[in-house]
């Protein structure tokens, strides 16, 4: 039999073995529909050479003349006229993070385990809405002749290399999706490593889908000249940022899946997923009019805002911001913008939580007492009497005396005992040993100046009741300050950060936006004593103000940005996927999940990756894919390995509604090696159809395909693999292993292995297994004090260990954490 041609694989061959592959992460926007006009517009915008336009047009006609393959009927159900095939957020690729930072996707790809763990990434590229927005590479690599740029730029700057290799590994005639992708591709990565150059640090790219009905079609081309080495990887808030739960603010670090957080609607929604990523780059600090609400995030994280330029009535003069029209501002529709696009003066959206639950037991009298306790009270243990005591401390002025006496009357009016006395310094004190009141204070306010915070019960009361508590809190802790011009500001100071944000939220519910000012603590020396003064959080507002820089629109406040700063960051960042609008509040301000958003309509990701590994070279390509559940992920990944070359695919698929991806390696020269590790996770509503393909066309070649999959909550995984050993390919060694793990009875898996062996001396092994998480395994772990969820995570992570060990330490940890989140509350 004549061996298959190296440069073109026929459609029959493709359909027979079912290879069409998904890569990761796209975003596109522009003219809707597929036509010659759309393709010509892409050519024009890219200023492409005539030969590329010809390829595109041939590919388009090929796609329109084809029928979807029978083995993938869902491809025929896709309305290809419903997608946008091109959009560009910038006119050119940026040269630095400052110009246009990359979006850190929820996945990363790494190789070179031992080296990459200890070194920083050498290059980063980002593809956003079909265009390259950023590429960088360390200077020492540029000096070696290494090229890492986007494919559009490569067409202009390296036309000979592009023309020589483009479409030779995956021609447009190859398959249905390859024809579409070749016609409409936009951006992608181009990597060229000269002969003998060894790139010890991984090159990395991030991709993002940003809008509904988007189709992103990046084209990646990697060329490793003889005896070169390269690793390529594909690819949010710091831990301490506070997320609103409606009654409290918690660091995003400790917010977990299934917890309730407040969305941009003002209502509570469940966290459906949590993402944690290593991030090295610029981190922005957005400082609104209330400086205590400043928050940090990556430049690509979406923030709900109204750009000042859209509501301005006149331009900037003498350095002053353009004046905003109140009418335009209140009528404007806020939009989610990347934080990197925000400007000083733009308006952020502060959302007022709207859920109310009245507790009839908390009447106005008790709320007045609670307000004074919040301001002046504490609970301590009286050792002499062996019981707890509530104490209120007031000043020695007449007004403080009246307030102390009022508190005593309130205590008596609810049938409890209390006493008023003066301390040695003539300060007024009210004490009570009432068990009922002490329980009320501890349950609803806590104790300690820096740890007091209001209970969920109080935070959900109707605003009219909350105002009663606020009025009496301000009687105790508030002060009036006459500002220049005669206006009066109300201020209250607390050592509790959490309480300051709660007070701000309570005021917002009654129609007042208050600022928070932080006065940093200090160390004072008094005699021989050192006093550590804690940070103070000053909540301030001006009642009845005729003009304000903020505007109230329904249950939202539009708050201008005072300052934006940036600083280098190298640590983990966090993100949440939330039910409903997929949004949440950071210190009261609305932000969006910066992964591919979840929409009711579909987004399409279709990419092609071509790798050319010349004689003696080594290329490793790693993908961690975690798309949102509305993405159709259809990608073709293929490599040509020449004499003595090694190509390694390390591939994980955990997101998207449907994934079809089968990384393949054609072994074209003697002693070439192929190594494919394919891992998939399918949860509820997901189909992960993945695998690998090794085509041996030369003697003394070796290959290894390892596939592992996990199905849970009714998800479906499938292994689709091919091993082809052509006539004349002597002394081939190959091993294929595919293992599937079912977490529950509802989930399913299938295998479609194909083997064509046309040489008698080939050494081939094939193993396959399907298993379930055993009750005895879980029992063994749980008997040692491990929770069921953690036990299940340990079993699954152990099953997927061959993939995790191929990752650098930071990414392996993150992969294990991702799988642990997926296993939470699963039933073994």
Structure description:
There is one protein chain. The chain has 828 residues and is of the alpha/beta class. Helices cover 22% and strands 36% of the residues. The strands form 8 sheets. Strands 3, 4, 6, 7, 31, 33, 35, 36, 38, 40 and 42 form an 11-stranded mixed beta sheet that branches. The radius of gyration is 31 Å and the shape is elongated. Mean pLDDT is 79; it is low at 1-29, 88-138, 206-215 and 595-601.
Structure described in brief:
The chain starts with 10 loop residues before the first helix and ends in a 5-residue tail after the last helix. It has 20 helices and 43 strands. With 828 residues, it is α/β, with parallel strands linked by helices.
Task: Describe the structure using short key phrases.
828 residues, single chain, disordered N terminus, ten-stranded mixed β-sheet, 20 helices, eleven-stranded mixed β-sheet, 43 strands, alpha/beta, elongated, 22% helix
């Amino acid at each position: 039999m004549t061996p298959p041609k190296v440069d073109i694989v026929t459609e029959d061959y493709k359909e027979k073995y079912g290879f069409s592959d998904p890569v990761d992460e796209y975003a596109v926007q522009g003219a809707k529909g597929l036509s010659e006009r759309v393709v010509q517009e892409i050519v024009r915008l890219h200023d492409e050479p005539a030969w590329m336009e010809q390829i595109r047009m041939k590919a388009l006609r090929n796609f329109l003349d084809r029928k979807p393959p029978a083995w993938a009927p869902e491809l025929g159900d896709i309305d290809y006229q419903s997608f946008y095939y091109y959009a560009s957020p910038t006119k050119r690729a940026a040269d630095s993070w400052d110009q246009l930072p990359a979006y850190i996707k929820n996945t990363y790809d790494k190789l070179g385990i031992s080296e990459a763990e200890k070194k920083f990434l050498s290059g980063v590229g980002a593809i956003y809405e079909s265009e390259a927005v950023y590429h960088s590479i360390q200077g020492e690599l540029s000096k070696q002749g290494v090229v890492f740029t986007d494919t559009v730029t490569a067409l202009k700057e390296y036309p000979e290399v592009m023309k020589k290799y483009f479409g030779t590994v995956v021609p447009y005639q190859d398959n249905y999706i390859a024809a579409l992708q070749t016609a409409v591709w936009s951006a992608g990565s181009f990597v060229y490593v000269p002969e003998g150059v060894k790139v010890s640090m991984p090159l990395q790219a991030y991709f993002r889908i940003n809008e509904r009905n988007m189709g992103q079609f990046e084209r990646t081309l990697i060329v490793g000249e003889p005896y070169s080495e390269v690793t390529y990887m594909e690819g949010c808030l710091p831990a301490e940022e506070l997320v609103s739960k409606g009654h409290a603010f918690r660091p995003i670090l400790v917010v977990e899946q299934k917890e309730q957080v407040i969305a941009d609607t003002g209502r509570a929604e469940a966290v459906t997923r949590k993402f944690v990523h290593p991030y090295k780059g610029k981190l922005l600090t957005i400082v609104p009019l209330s400086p205590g609400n400043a928050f940090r995030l990556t430049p690509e994280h979406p923030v709900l805002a109204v750009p000042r330029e859209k509501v301005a009535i006149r331009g900037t003069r003498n350095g002053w911001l353009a004046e905003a029209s109140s009418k335009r501002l209140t009528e404007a529709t806020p939009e989610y913008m990347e934080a990197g696009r925000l400007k000083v003066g733009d308006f952020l959206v502060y959302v007022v939580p709207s859920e109310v639950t009245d507790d009839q037991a908390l009447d106005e009298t008790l709320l007045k007492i609670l307000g004074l306790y919040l301001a002046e009270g504490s609970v301590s243990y009286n050792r002499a009497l062996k019981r707890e005591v509530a104490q209120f401390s007031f000043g020695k002025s007449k007004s403080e005396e009246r307030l102390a006496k009022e508190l005593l009357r309130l205590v008596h009016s609810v049938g409890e005992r209390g006493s008023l006395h003066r301390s040695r310094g003539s300060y007024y004190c009210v004490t009570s040993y009432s068990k009922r009141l002490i329980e009320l204070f501890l349950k609803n306010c806590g104790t300690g100046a820096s740890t007091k915070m209001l209970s969920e019960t109080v935070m959900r009361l109707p605003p009219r009741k909350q105002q009663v508590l606020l009025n009496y809190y301000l009687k105790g802790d508030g002060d009036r300050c006459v500002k220049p011009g005669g206006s009066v500001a109300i201020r209250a100071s607390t050592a509790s950060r959490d309480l300051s944000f709660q007070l701000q939220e309570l005021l917002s519910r009654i129609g007042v936006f208050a600022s928070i000012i932080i006065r940093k603590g200090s160390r004072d020396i008094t005699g021989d004593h050192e006093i550590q003064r804690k940070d103070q959080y000053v909540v301030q507002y001006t009642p009845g103000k005729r003009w304000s820089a903020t505007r109230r629109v329904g249950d939202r406040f539009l708050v201008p940005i005072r300052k934006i700063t940036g600083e280098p960051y190298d640590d983990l960042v966090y993100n949440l996927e939330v039910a409903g609008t997929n949004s949440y509040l950071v210190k009261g301000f609305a932000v969006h999940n910066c992964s591919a958003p979840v929409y009711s309509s579909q987004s399409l990701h279709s990419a092609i990756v071509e790798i050319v590994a010349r004689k003696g070279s080594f290329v490793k390509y790693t993908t961690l894919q975690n798309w949102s559940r509305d993405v159709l992920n259809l990608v073709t990944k293929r490599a040509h390995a020449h004499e003595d070359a090694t190509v390694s695919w390390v591939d994980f698929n955990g997101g998207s509604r449907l994934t079809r991806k089968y990384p393949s390696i054609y072994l074209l020269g003697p002693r070439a090696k192929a190594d494919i590790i394919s891992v998939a996770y399918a949860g509820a509503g997901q189909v992960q159809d993945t695998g690998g393909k090794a085509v041996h066309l030369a003697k003394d070649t070796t290959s290894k395909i390892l596939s592992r999959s996990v199905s849970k909550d009714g998800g479906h995984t499938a292994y689709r693999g091919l091993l082809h050993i052509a006539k004349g390919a002597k002394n081939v060694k190959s091993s294929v292993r595919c293992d599937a793990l079912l977490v529950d009875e509802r989930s399913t898996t299938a295998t479609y292995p194909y083997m064509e062996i046309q040489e008698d001396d080939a050494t081939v092994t094939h193993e396959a297994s399907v298993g379930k998480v055993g009750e005895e395994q879980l029992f063994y772990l749980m008997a040692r004090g491990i929770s069921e969820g953690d036990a299940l995570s340990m079993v699954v992570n152990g099953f997927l260990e061959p993939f995790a060990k191929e990752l650098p330490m930071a990414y392996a940890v993150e992969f294990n954490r991702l799988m642990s989140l997926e296993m939470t509350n699963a039933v073994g």
